[in-house]
Amino acid sequence: MKKYDVLVIGAGMAGAAVAKKCAIKGLKTAITDFRPYGGTCALRGCDPKKVLIDAASLREQVRLHLGKGLTGDVEVNWQELMKFKETFTAPVPENMEKGFEKAGIDTYHAPAAFLDESTLQIGQETVSAEKIVIVTGARPRELEVPGAEHTITSDDFLNLEALPEHITFLGGGYISFEFAHLAARAGSRVTIIEHGPRPLKHFEQDMVDELVRVSKEAGIDIRLNCEVQRITQKANEYEVSLEGEAGRGTLETGLVVSAIGRVPEVGQLDLNKGNVRHGRKGIDVNEYLQSTSNPRVYAAGDVADTEGLPLTPVAVYEGHFLSANVIKGNSKKVNYPEIPTVVFTIPSLASVGLTERQAKEQGLDYKVNTHDARQWFNGRRHRAPAYAYKVLVSKTDGSILGAHLVGPQAEETINVFAVAMKAGMKARDLKSFLFSYPTMASDVSYMA
Ligand SMILES: Cc1cc2nc3c(=O)[nH]c(=O)nc-3n(C[C@H](O)[C@H](O)[C@H](O)COP(=O)(O)OP(=O)(O)OC[C@H]3O[C@@H](n4cnc5c(N)ncnc54)[C@H](O)[C@@H]3O)c2cc1C
Ligand SMILES: NC(=O)c1ccc[n+]([C@@H]2O[C@H](COP(=O)([O-])OP(=O)(O)OC[C@H]3O[C@@H](n4cnc5c(N)ncnc54)[C@H](O)[C@@H]3O)[C@@H](O)[C@H]2O)c1
């Protein structure tokens, strides 16, 4: 049986960060993944998605400037774009594996499953470890209606050889909105089906309203309070039976993408044999990211039940705390700064800190700065179909409680607010800051 100081299960962003840190400190470290190394973000999430959306966004920029100095529309060539995307994803597994080998980390390529509290089966090998790090991420939530087997997931969507004429996205969250905006700009007709009353419900709803307006202008059909009853295959199409406010109906579509949330990936781990307590939100951990039932086990990223959002920078951030606790013993309690988050639609929706609803619930005394900025210089030069902001400032001490933006480059501008909030800057500090001009960030001084 192979023995290690540290066994890392999952070679995604969190896993790579932990394995390298442990190996650098001289711990005998191994890592395993049953998929090609790289994890969701680099292979099936953030990175490939952003490459595709950037092209669609450029196409939209050109379209918006037709008759304003540009002539001749451009089109998205899906096949070429997918090839370009693959230049980013294809090298990842080998590069990551080489990095592990260079760091002296043993690499395995099979699912790990607990045999007891310190021993795991990895393919044909039995492995024991002093510390076991679970960073297995999340997987798509399963749709439970007849015909669910006809749906595809975000993984499949990012590898489509061609886009059909019409696509239905189930779920009104991050994935559906991002992919819907991409597909609409790449020439498909798109419908989003959300079973709740609001899409993107954790975002500031005034900004979501703006995004919904531009989504509809882009031809995206958004149906709220709408439940899927059944999916039936018909020749080359699918028939989606729906029940909503307008009663029952059907939708003919070329493809159904299920994006109704993601759940912690614990299926293959046999956690009960390892005495690892877990629930619906993932592995139960304490403030050191250590299992509450098996002290050898630590967990971080999407699979861990923590306060952190299931996002890449959070997985890596938690990985740093976890590594310190594995290397030196429990010494670093995880604490979270304000976490910026972006929906990469065209234009994007970005948020950091409290929404107005949360500020109200916490009984805070705040003022709201909000405006439709489409007519500002930056809005006009981008010919922005949406450019708006809502910033919450504490009346008690002038600190920034939350910032919410929709519009061109909102994904970049939000980082200015996140830095200011982490640094404890007041709204007046941002107002008096000298931003380079004319940049999108220079608008921050008017927003704060
Ligand atoms: C379509 C999509 C787009 C996204 N876009 C963004 C974005 O723009 N920005 C952002 O911040 N976040 C985004 N996310 C979320 C982000 O990808 C995740 O939060 C992040 O990848 C989590 O990292 P992780 O290390 O916890 O898990 P992962 O990166 O998922 O890695 C976990 C690894 O563990 C492996 N594994 C699972 N079970 C086992 C087992 N039993 N044995 C061995 N290996 C196992 C898996 O194969 C996987 O490779 C997106 C997600 C999706 C699906
Ligand atoms: N830009 C980013 O950072 C980014 C992008 C994509 C994904 N992600 C991460 O991945 C996670 C998963 O994304 P997602 O879009 O799958 O989930 P989500 O949690 O963002 O949204 C899921 C939506 O589906 C709805 N829903 C649930 N069951 C349904 C059903 N049966 N029919 C119709 N609607 C239903 C929910 O009400 C919710 O609005 C996100 O929470 C996020 O953490 C992040």
TrEMBL record:
Cofactor: FAD
A GO MF label: oxidoreductase activity
Domain FAD/NAD(P)-binding: 4-319
Family note: Belongs to the class-I pyridine nucleotide-disulfide oxidoreductase family.
Matching InterPro entries: FAD/NAD-bd_sf, FAD/NAD-binding_dom, FAD/NAD-linked_Rdtase_dimer_sf, Pyr_nuc-diS_OxRdtase, Pyr_nucl-diS_OxRdtase_dimer
Domain Pyridine nucleotide-disulphide oxidoreductase dimerisation: 339-444
Protein name: Dihydrolipoyl dehydrogenase family protein
Keyword Membrane recorded: no
Keywords from the named record: FAD, Flavoprotein, Oxidoreductase
Presence of the UniProt keyword Oxidoreductase in the record: yes
Residues spanning the membrane: none
First-tier enzyme category under EC: oxidoreductase
